[in-house]
Amino acid sequence: MMAMESNRYGPTYQRNALAPGVLVAIALVVGTMLIGSEWYETLRFVIAVLAVIVAWFAFQAKHWWWIPVFLAIAVAWNPVMPFAFEGQAWLLAHLGAAIVALVAAVLIKAPRPE
């Protein structure tokens, strides 16, 4: 009976990284279509910022193992000092990072404050 009352108001955890994780995954998939266009540089900025946000939520949730993954995504897609990646491998990196972002968005959760 006591356990039921603790869940009376919903889950006891929250997924703060869900929205930015899904958004970065969408941006990465859209990025595969925009490589080489003038919009791609703007999209790189969005990807890098959202990756840092997901890393911050991972830090807050004490899911330390996700932090280097999203910092690597932020560095690889940074618009300030961009790397000259191209070709099929770069397209696959976009899709792989999108899958990783979706997995992290679902798995990163923190206890809901009382």
UniProtKB/TrEMBL annotation:
**Keywords for the protein's UniProt record, in alphabetical order:** Membrane, Transmembrane, Transmembrane helix
| Name of one Pfam family that matches | DUF6804
Instruction: Tell whether Transmembrane helix is among the UniProt keywords.
Output: yes
For whether the record's keyword set contains Transmembrane helix, the answer is yes
Q: Which residues cross the membrane?
A: 16-36, 42-59, 66-85, 91-108
Q: Which InterPro entries match?
A: DUF6804
Please give the superkingdom of this protein's source: Bacteria
Q: Under what name is this protein listed?
A: SPW repeat-containing protein
